[in-house]
Amino acid sequence: MLEDKSQELTPISKLGEFGLIKHLTENFPVVQNSTKVSIGDDAAVIDSENQKVVVSTDMLAEGVHFNLGYVPLKHLGYKAVVVNLSDIAAMNATPTQILVSVAVSNRFPVEALEEIYAGIALACNRYKVDLIGGDTTSSNAGLVISVTAIGLENEEKIVKRNGAKPNDLLVVTGDLGGAYLGLQILEREHSVYLANPNMQPEMEGYDYILERQLKPEARTDIKKKLEELDILPTSMIDVSDGLASEVLHLSDQSKVGFHLYEEKIPMDESTIHTSEEFNLNPAMATLNGGEDYELLFTISPSDFDKIKNHPDFTVIGHATAEEQGNFLVARGSNQLIPLTAQGWDAFLNKE
Ligand SMILES: Nc1ncnc2c1ncn2[C@@H]1O[C@H](COP(=O)(O)OP(=O)(O)O)[C@@H](O)[C@H]1O
Ligand SMILES: Cc1ncc(C[n+]2csc(CCOP(=O)(O)OP(=O)(O)O)c2C)c(N)n1
Ligand SMILES: [Mg+2]
């Protein structure tokens, strides 16, 4: 990587902007029929036929969203794509194309960008999406990667944040809190390394949570699973900022309240163990940690039997009338704790 002095590194100036773009994007195949014009023209062209076009964009900034002290560039490229595909999955749509924009300082050699694009290519291949364009510019400060994701879906299948009704069940996929604890491990080992570069990082036993932080996946598989069960969620959102924040978004848009049961929140064993190691309440990691990229949705109570024993889904609460407000039902005591947490916020986190 960057520190590897044995390898000759190529300055970006050697290729120039156009040479760089060509070099980075030449090995991206077009696999979607809807992609009519891809990289190389003034704009890309998509043929959506009878489907609606679903579009979302998210930006990752060095120092705010990632720290290059411990995040490998290939993982960064992969994650930048995945977090955007997650937003398309949260609309119950299928992602088909992405655009990628990077602002990069000329302290980066071409090889660093190759690493980022290797991660992007991996994600494109894994999720069968086409890279159809983007923008490349220089930056005097940190690295910024912005991805726009496009998906196509039949209008009646698209699920928004605003359809939850009182008594609907609140359901989440997978398990939560892992990505936050993975980040705590990376931060801890990075500060140990900065204090003494000869110390070996202690990463053993943390594989699952490190993967949740460094190589998250988008739940594009859920759409098909729900279709097989003949369930169309009434509202849906992905868990990027933390469960509390996302529940409040559904509440806000759907004009309902929620009761969220702490004891029902799914967590992996390693998330619980690592929380204990850091003297943290694991439920707090799920509520405010973020970056789990699971899907949170509501379903009609009449659909309960269809999902009650499904390994991918956990019912964690239910919607109430809006006037009742949003509460966490505490483990054991059944005490109602107002759900006020706002989850992870890029502007609040910098104190
Ligand atoms: N700078 C901006 N200009 C216009 N719209 C924005 C901007 N930032 C966010 N949005 C819009 O606000 C909404 C919420 O954004 P955000 O909280 O980032 O959602 P998500 O967590 O799904 O990425 C989205 O519809 C998004 O497109
Ligand atoms: C250095 C560093 N700081 C903080 C985090 C944690 N973090 C980064 S992004 C994020 C949540 C999602 O980010 P946001 O920009 O809010 O995305 P959106 O909700 O728009 O999808 C979190 C919790 C991290 N992974 N690395
Ligand atoms: Mg966003």
From TrEMBL:
Which positions are annotated as binding Mg(2+) 3?
42, 87, 238
List the CDD domains hit by this protein, alphabetically.
Answer: ThiL
EC number(s): the record gives 2.7.4.16
GO biological process terms, semicolon-separated: thiamine biosynthetic process; thiamine diphosphate biosynthetic process
What positions does the domain PurM-like C-terminal occupy?
A: 165-325
Where does this protein hold Mg(2+) 5?
241
Q: Which positions bind Mg(2+) 1? A: 57-58, 135
Q: Which UniProt keywords apply?
A: ATP-binding, Kinase, Magnesium, Metal-binding, Nucleotide-binding, Thiamine biosynthesis, Transferase
Q: Which GO terms describe its molecular function?
A: ATP binding; magnesium ion binding; thiamine-phosphate kinase activity
Residues reported in the UniProt entry to bind Mg(2+) 4: 42, 56, 87
Sequence similarity? Belongs to the thiamine-monophosphate kinase family.
Q: What does the record's miscellaneous section state?
A: Reaction mechanism of ThiL seems to utilize a direct, inline transfer of the gamma-phosphate of ATP to TMP rather than a phosphorylated enzyme intermediate.
Q: What is this protein called?
A: Thiamine-monophosphate kinase
Organism of provenance: Epilithonimonas arachidiradicis
